[in-house]
Amino acid sequence: LRIGAGRVPRGPARLRQRGPAAAHRRQAAATPPQRPALQGAQNLLGAGRGLAHRGGPRSAAAGPGNVVAFMHAWRFTHFTDEGGMHSPNPEQLTASHKLWVLLTGVRNPKPQSLLAPSFAVQNITIASPNGPLSAWYARPDTAAPKGTVALFHGYTGSKAHLLHEAGYFRHLGYAVLLVDQTGNGNSSGNRTTIGYREADDVAAAVQYLRAQKHAASP
Question: Which residue intervals make up region (Disordered) (predicted)?
Fold first, then answer.
């Protein structure tokens, strides 16, 4: 068998070049080398795509970052039954505690209504689709209130955080209703939905006020 310049070899030699090893060499030669950081990013994206396609409990092993994100989201929306304050500021933590908070999220105790009002209030319970709500109702110093203002606290708050605003509206001649929303203060539950289910609490409070003959229209 004669092989001339520029000729393609025939026979067994040519067949060997068509095998899997030759194809792998051609692919490696055509693909430029990648930097380690780029390769790591591509591996991470590939794991994320596989996680999105597969789903289910087994996918947690493919993406530990998703487990950390889940823990932070859980801590953010679920309050603990333990008393005390939430996790200290980062500058007050040791290195090991910082790592623990980074992996498991911030400790979030259930907010409590610890402050007592300086004016007379009526303790009431409002029926909500999310469970019983604890609230304070107070009339102004005047005999006939101009109306009723329902007050709702923010994230990790309670009705005790609304006393300053309640005093202002009472001074203007309005009755006030201070509500512990679901999962906060003395109301039932230990979680928050950041406004999604809390809208039912607002509707329940307004319905309660409208049903009370002694209360002015909200």
Answer: 1-37
Angle between helices 95-104 and 64-77 (to 10 degrees): 90
Q: Is the pLDDT of residue 114 over 70?
A: yes
The tens digit of pLDDT for each residue in 148-206 reads 999 999 888 889 999 999 999 999 999 999 999 998 888 888 888 887 888 999 999 99
Backbone phi, then psi, for 114, in 5-degree steps? -90, -20
Cα atoms in the 13 Å half-sphere on the side-chain side of 28: 6
Place of tokens 């928050």: 192
In a domain, 34, yes or no: no
Residue 175 CB coordination number (10 Å): 24
Asked if 178 and 132 sit in the same domain, the reply is yes
Q: Could you tell me the residue range of the domain that residue 192 belongs to?
A: 122-211
Query: Quick one: tokens of 4?
Result: 């001339």
- CATH (domain of 196): 3.40.50.1820
* 147, 174: one domain: yes
3-state secondary structure of 35: coil
State the average pLDDT over residues 15-37. 51
Kindly report, residue by residue over 47-95, the tens digit of the pLDDT: 444 444 445 555 544 477 788 787 777 777 777 776 555 556 666 777 8
> What DSSP designation does 131 have?
S
**CA–CA separation, 93 vs 107, rounded Å?**
13
Tokens of 186: 């003395």
Tokens matching residue 21: 């090893």
**25 located within any domain:** no
